[in-house]
Design goal:
Elements (H helix, E strand, L loop, with lengths): L2 E8 L12 E4 L3 E5 L6 H13 L16 H4 L3 E11 L5 E12 L4 E5 L3 E5 L5 E5 L5 H9 L3 H8 L13 H12 L2 H110 L8 H77 L13 H102 L2 H71 L7 H62 L4 H38 L13 H94 L4 H8 L6 H49 L6 H143 L1 H77 L4 H44 L6 H55 L7 E9 L11 E10 L2 E4 L6 H19 L5 E5 L7 H17 L7 E6 L2 H8 L6 E7 L5 E7 L6
Parallel strand pairs: 3-13, 3-14, 12-13
Antiparallel strand pairs: 1-2, 1-4, 4-5, 5-6, 5-7, 7-8, 9-10, 10-11, 14-15
Amino acid sequence: MSAIQKLCIQGVRSFGPEDRDRQIIQFSPLTLILGPNGSGKTTIIECLKYVTTGDMPPGAKTGGMFVHDPKIAHETEVKAQVKLQLKDVAGRVMVVTRSFVAQQKLKQVSMKTLDGVILRHNQNGEKVMLTSKCGDLDREMIESLGVSKSVLNYVIFCHQEDSNWPLTEGKVLKERFDEIFAATRYIKALEAIRKLRLERNGELKIFNSEIKYLKQNKDKADEIMQKMDTIKTKLVVSKDAVGKMEAQLTPVQERLDEIAQKSNDIFQLKTQVDKMAGERKQLEGHCISLRNKISNEFSGETADLEQELREFDSKLQTCKLSLSKLEVQECKLDADWKEEEEKIRGLKLDNHIIKTNIKLHENTIARREKLMRDAASQYELSGFTDDVFTDVERFTLLMQKHISAAEKSMNALKVECEEKEAELQYQMDAVRDKKTQLQQEEKMKRENINKNKNEIRNIGAELKRVGASAHRLEQLEKELKQMESELQACEASSNVEQTRTEVQRLQAEKAELETTCSNLDSEMGHLHSQSKVRTELDMMGKEKVDKEETVRKIRDKHEDTVVHLLGQFPADKAGLALRDYISQQDEAIRGFHKGFNELQSEMASCTANRNMLKEQLEKEEKNRKNFEEKVFQTCGSQDFDDSIGALNTSIGALQDEKGALTGARHLYSKFVKELRRKSMCPLCHRDFPDSNDVEELVQDLSIKLRLVPTQLEMKEKSIGEQQEKYKQLLQLKPQKEQMAALSQKEIPNLNQKIKEKSEKIGKLRGESDEAEEMLNQTQVEENKEHNGCAFWCNRVNDVSCHKSVLITVFVQMDKALGESIQSDLLFMDRCLDDIRQLDRKIATLSTKIADKGSGRSMQTVISEKDDVQMRLKTIGLSLDAKRDSMQKQLDTVQRLRSSVHDVNTEKLQITQDLQKSRSLDEKRSELQTTNERLEQDADEAGRRITPLESKWLELSEEKKQTIRRKEKTLKESSQQLQTMNSELKSINVETDIINTCVGNGNERKLAASDEKMAAAESQLQQIERGKRVAQESMNDMRRELSSQQVRQRELQDCLELRKHEAEVKRMTKKITALEAQLGGFDPSSLERERKKLIEKQDRLVKEKHSLDERQRGFEDLIRNYAEDLQSDQYRAADVQHRDMLIDSCTTEMVVKDLEKYYKALDNAVNHYHKQKMDEINKTVRELWMKTYKGTDIEYIEIKSNEDGDNAGIEKSRRTYNYRVVMIRSGVALDMRGRCSAGQKVLASLIIRLALAETFCLNCGILALDEPTTNLDRENIESLANALIEIVECRSKQHNFQLLIITHDEDFLEIVGQAGYVDDYYRVKKNAEGLSTVTKCNICEIHK
């Protein structure tokens, strides 16, 4: 069972956050904690609840209020920790630590939970830690303590604010009792079962309705299948008839095909003749058209005509080349013209910009002079009234001096005004302070006057009340005498002690009778069990005889075999001895098989090595072939080294050619530039006589330059290809060396190793096959001959038998013999064990019968028990009556004593009030005198305030005028300074612009721009003249080219005319040949035969079509039937019907099972709830009668009313509503709303004690926070005595713990005097306002 041992608190509420502020409490079976209100006692309960459940206390919001306030600690962050050491339900010690931190934000305090830790020791003594990151600490704590979270929250560590929850409204009470009983999940389970059963009932109805529909579908599908089989038979007959008809049609169709082929040949010949005639006619028309187009027909041979056409092509190419040169020249002139035109446009733009800058420069000078003239006139600067300003620097210097003087004047005025303003403010402050002092004095005196008036009024009311109660004093004395006499008479007439003695006597007699009744129950149980024992003894004797007979038979049957195998028959455990012998034979056989397996393993290993070597050889051969293929793809049939040398030489040659082309490009470009610069040969430096020769040479060089990039690109591409090929060969060179090594060394070595492995494998396979063949043969022969004996004897004489195999043969024979009898011997061992066990049981039962014989019959014992129970019932009724009588007498005495006490208290109060009346009169007179003096002082202070207010207003007005005057003057000076600075800045800007324009030299730039523009215009005119000359030459060349092209077309037409005429002659000869071939056919006889065959074919086809139509009808019917069977309705009708029938039956079984489950669970929940409520109410009744000293309530109990009809599973679910009732005169009344605050506290406390007694079987902890709240002294004492009795009753329980927290020292003293505790903990606050816990001796409570 679980128990708490030690608690450590730091940084929670009023407990300090520093290490020195950490407080530790050690718990004992009874732990007492005392402290005044606000000292931090309840915080201990909150910490225990938080560390065990993880829940914050009520009202802590997000937890920020649970931590020590950062403002009080003067920190932005405060860390808190609660640590608890406890024992879990298994008795293991564990330590739980929960840490959290509070941070002060801008407007609120936020709390963040840090990592929680559970530390415990495992079975090996090692520390094991569980953090909140790795598991759920709350669940782990609940399992360790052995109680639910609801019991921890509402019973064990119930907060003071929630301590009266048993008397709250019904909804809250029901929720908490449901949580404590843990009934919610079972009620939900019942509801789930009920809903599931309703769902399954609905499904069952659906299944039953669908079964009828599926049965119809199944019958319909069977009918369709029968029809389809009939139609299939008819279809087979129809197909046979169609086959016969097709056999008759085949020869007719073949003859028709022959006739059609001949007709087709005739048609083809006619078609060819007609086609060639048409083509000939078309060619003749084309010849006529060409002859009409030719104006000058060529008269020579065709070869001469073709030669003429080839020469024309050369001439046309020359003309086109000349024309292209002229076009290039024209394009160059156009580019030069555009360049000059763009140059002239830029020069014009520059000229315009320069002129604009000169004009802006003149305007800037005029604007600066105007600004300087205006400023000199405004600020009276001498020497600047002429028309031209030259000394700009002197003007700027004078302006700066003028501005500095204005600034100094403005600053002096500002200082003067501020000094005067400060003096006026000082005078105003002095007047205001004096006025405030007088106002405060007047206010205090007025407040004292009002306070004294209220006190005078209260004294008058008190004096009136005391005067009225003086008459009540005499009446109280009379009532007191009468009550005291009644109390004495009641005490004299009561016989409480005699009744108590009688009750004790009846209780002792009742206990004696209960013991007698218990003994009679035991005797009845013994008598009942003896009859069973005798029956059982007879059955055991019979079973023993049967097993002894079985053992004898088995021994007689197998004794010779066992002696042969083991040497003797064991007296005991013969089956185990035989099993050991068989195990030894198995070991010998396994040894032989192990050797045989090792032989096979060695052979398998050699085979695997040989296969691996073969794979390696194949891999190497494959690599060599791959390399040879790569070399062949790269080098062809040439040798590898020769290919590398040839590629190296080729790359060098290509690179030389590329360098030559690059040099030629630079050289040709240089020659072109020099020729355009001066008409001189760049090599021999001779002048050209004509400029056309220069242009022709330049054009030739330009054409060569245009071809150079293409040639360079081709060379670079060739070099890249050769280099790539060379690179591939270099990459293959290491592989070539490796392949050479493979061919010369590695491959021959691998072949040699494979040969050696093959020889070894052959040798091992021979040995293995010999042994395996012998073993297989022995097994076959053993199975043929009885027990294998004859076979083994024959094998002994076989000289070819291997020695190890013969040994194994004999071992296997013995093993087989032993296994054949092993089951019987093991069964015999079990029978012997059963015989020994039966002997022990028979001896035990015989002893029981001998010891427990009493000699009396069952009927005698039952009669005696009935008499004892009747006497117990009579004594119980007498005991209840005596208790009621004694309680009534005690209640009457207690009521009279309370009345006497109340009257004495009221009398004492009236006497004290009369004695205070004289002092109240004196105090009222003194207060009235004080008020008169205070009125005078207040009026005097008011008169002195008025002149001070007038003087303060005058000084305030004077200060405002001074401030306004200062602001006006400073504003005017500041505006003047800004104007002067602005004017000076504008003049400086204009001066900078003028200086920039003077430095640019615009006049010189304008003259240079005019010269450049004139030269460019002259060059443009020269280019235009060159363009006109080039265009005239191009026009002449185009006219010449056009005339040559016309003549070329005539010659081409002549050549085409001669070709067409030759083609016409060839077609005429071919047409004559085809007409001669067509004359050998007779189309009319073929047509007559074709018509007869077609008539016969039509007749047969009609008959075949009739059969086909009938066959298609059968096929359509079969297809329709098949489609119907494949539809969703009939496709799986039989399967669906069977599945639905299975579903219906299983669902019906499920519904019945769910109803059984519901009833079983419902009855179990109901029984558990009733049992627990009876236990709780019994404990509540006993505690109330022991504790409560009043007479108005006999006892209290918890009523649980059941809602919902429990007639069956079809009704609504079962729920319970709870209420606390008090029994008064046998009537149960709701306690909520009818009881006092003290009764509410006591009832809630007793209910918690009862719940703890019932539900805390694994956790004997209970914490009571301020249990004496709202209780009177008598009930406080009775509560203390009840708690002492509880401690006394449960002191023998090793894990019982009661924690009491209170501020009542008397209550604590009563509990402490019981002798169950020596120390208590006192909680108080130190000088810093932090809670501290001190352990004190129980005898020093009032010190």
